[in-house]
């Protein structure tokens, strides 16, 4: 039996007895199509090239591995910001803790409601961008999400929106296995900021499909919670129109296993996509950023900036790709992945790829790995800065390039405070 | 290979490149065929064929068994498909695995006894099998006064070694340089000890195939403390049709020794594709150093992608001893399909590995090539400089791995891979794997992709160069870092190849 046939067979066994959620015509159609994709691809396995550095078994096995609850003494992130809060507890919507879904230029609905309808605009996006993102590399866990997700937010932005929408993911059950699927549509000229934070669940499979129309701007800042034992696989699928802007930043602080995939397609000329991330790992921690940027239009710009600070056996993984199609002339593509290893037990595994079919482009990527620069440390210590503070300063300056990608100052400050907190807890 | 008209021009490098473009006129120079009576093994691959090859080489029983085990392993292996290469499936049963000129049936005792037709073949290729001071790879150099450096040549024609020059002089220095079939007979203790110790029999599909059917190749042993008195070189020529060439090279540099080894290869122009699957193993002991340079110029197929060599090669150097050093330099201009990753295992403390590569693909050529740097020892250093140039509808991929193991403390790697695209129908790709498992090591990887700079083009054109010559000049500048790492014998030829391969890519 071929490897694929074996994979399909074990996937069929895993899915046995799992029924697709009930819903209206369009949702049923989308879910069935996704299930078909999943059955054809099979769930990821350890030997898959795309899972070379991250073992997928705990993400695909039937039950979520237990994750104890972690009580944080930090002020909740984004607490001081004026924002529209939407709360999910272990993947279940909590109306009591959430704000009213009301805002100018903004319509927010829940997937659970939208999926009941026989027809809804979300059908043009739900599972559509995901299906599109399955080539040339398969993402079976995203297909699984599309097939089985019952809830999430469905947001339509028709113009400029000042007040960010903030998705808060609480974790209260040690064996929760949550699936959420969000759909976000920005009309031409619209602008919108989405915040996400919290550990979400013992195991979390989250997908987000974002359609950014011509001239629209989407900003996304996310912080994945501090629960040490949580696991997560997330996907962002984004389609960018002419002169649109997409900016996404993710801070990950601990968690046993995190796989964040971003699949960005620049389909309109002069579009801009920036994807950045800072991951701070201490101990039994694996953080995987898997990014795929496709340039399919002229004069677009993309940046990938990923920084990882690792200690006590933490593992950082980066798989990044810039694909420049034949007609995507004048592309400006940049990608940097770096790790700072604070001790000798950690590891950094990277596969930064370029695939280029257009000749008039400037694409570059860099990847580095190493310890704290002793010269810089000496410089600071010679000026009277104690060793631990000096180290912290160097760590902060290392991740700064990624944090700088956050455009709004208040959000940047919030993230920096979090980073400083992480360092402070490890001092002394 | 230009004439020596401009050899006296000191700054003549670029001039020669320009000349090469003009003179060669876009044709593959080595596409002719030697008409010579050949002896073939029956088509296809079976256990009997493996035995036959072993028998033809008059091998001892242990070698035959070694091959048969490899053949059994090969039957269980699947052809790799992860490279960015797209070619029709190879029918491994539709190949000849052994072909030798009839005249080689009785092994010539010296070069004087070799069939003049064979000698003429090599002379025509610019590789005269005469023991004299020559500049290998430069036409007309055999008539030049004896002031060049000495180069010992092992010439492999299809499945057999035709002869090896300077054997006596090398022997005086203690260096063994002969064909691998001779080494199996004459130096079994060395072959037994080292063969398959760097590239294990079942390493990969093609290496396993090679282990079963390799017919000839070169063997080098440099004893402790010896600096090999001349450059060693092997020239591989495929001549027979539908014949695969499977050569095996084994180089052993014992403690404190040094050797520089050059490899060249060409094949006739044919409509059908031909298979070439070689294995090169290098063992480097304490304080020893090996330089291995290749100018790979197999027939690349015509401008419509018809014919050409499928080049599946496994090359690996094992730096076993402390402070051992290896340097791979390759200029890849030929072959329809290239699948080749010369690698370094840096096992000894303070070992060093270097990889310099220029891969040029034009028309329908596809190359997936790069290196692996496996750092196992402390304070090991590696450097990778790769330049990929694509033209026509060619695809050019750099694929490499840098791995820092937990015990490889204080190690360093620097990787730079640049790609240049000439034309909007071709592709350039970079697929590096970086694995760092300790924090005292430093790994840096940089890659860029760009097109021929408009300003540089304008500058050249303004000074009266035609477009093609200007591209050749700019590309040469782009590739200079690698070309400079080549031994002198190859540097000139390589520079000309850069120009030749790009012929017809402009406009």
Mean pLDDT of chain A: 95
Number of domains in the coordinates of chain B? 2
Determine the N-to-C terminus distance of chain A. 56 Å
Individual helix count of chain B: 11
- Total beta strand runs of chain A: 19
Shape of chain B: globular
Physical arrangement of strands within the biggest beta sheet of chain B: 4-3-7-9-12-14-17-20-22-24
Strand content of chain A: 35-45%
Arithmetic mean of pLDDT of chain B? 85
| Category from helices, strands and their pairing of chain B | alpha/beta
Query: What's the Cα radius of gyration of chain A?
Result: 21 Å
Low-confidence stretches of chain A: none
Describe the strand arrangement of the main beta sheet of chain A, using strand numbers.
2-1-5-7-9-11-13-15-17-19
| Overall number of strands of chain B | 24
Number of continuous helical runs of chain A? 9
Percent of residues of chain B in beta strands?
25-35%
**Share of residues in helices of chain A:** 10-25%
Which structural class do you get from the secondary structure elements of chain A? Answer: alpha/beta
